[in-house]
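Students often ask what a holo structure prediction actually looks like on paper. The answer is less mysterious than it sounds. You provide the chain, you provide the ligand, and the output is a string of C-alpha cells encoding the 3D arrangement of the protein together with zinc ion.
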Amino acid sequence: MLRSPLLLVPLTLSLMLPVSAPAALAESPAVAPALAPLPELVAGPVDTMSEAATATATAVRLQKPAPLNFPMAPTPRCYVLDNFGDPRSGGRIHQGADLLASLGQEVYAMADGTLTFQAKVGDGRSGTALSGNLWRLTAPNGIYYVYAHLSAFAPNLAVGSTVYKGQLIGYVGDTGNPGPGNYHLHFEVHPNGGAAVNPLPLLTVPRECTVY
Ligand SMILES: [Zn+2]
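The corresponding C-alpha cells follow.
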C-alpha cells in the first residue's frame, strides 16, 4: 500500500512538467532518493507489527496482578471477622475466619496445590449440612485450606485437580448453615495437615477490606 503513492510521484511530476522542460529536471536527484527507501518502507510495517505484538504481550504479562495472599476477591464487599476460636453450638468452636462478602464474589486458591476434598449440597454427608459446598485445597508442604459455604464451584474442577495460587475455584454463597443471605466465605488453615490455626496472621488483608 505504501508503494503505490510513492511510485505515482515521479509519474505525476512527469505529467505536470512542461514538454520543453530539460530532461535533467525530470530525472532530478530530488526524485531518485524518494525511491531508494522503498524496500525498507515495505519491510518496516511488518517488523513494527511484530515488535508491537511482542510489546503488547509483555505489557499484558506485566499488568497481570500478582495473586492475592487472600482467598477471596476484596470487592464489592469484604468484612473480615476475626472470629477464629469463637464458641459454636454443640460445644464446637469456630475453626476458621469468616469473610463477609456478596453473593458470587470470587474465591481463589491460596497456594499451588491439589483439590483433595469436595462437599456438595445434597451429597448426603453429615458435615455438608454445616459446610455447604466446600473445597479442601492441599499444598505440597502439607498445609491445607478449607473453603465453605460456596454458592458454586468454578467450572472444570474436581477432586484431584491441580490449581495455582490465585486461581478461581469457586464463588461466595450461603450454602450450609449460615442462613439465607448471610453470604460469606468460611476459611480454614491447617498447617501440616493438623489442627486449624487462626488464618488472619497468615493473610495479607486487601485495603478494600475491613477487619472486625
Ligand atoms: Zn465460619
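Residues 79-88+95-211 form a domain with the Glucose Permease (Domain IIA) fold (CATH 2.70.70.10).
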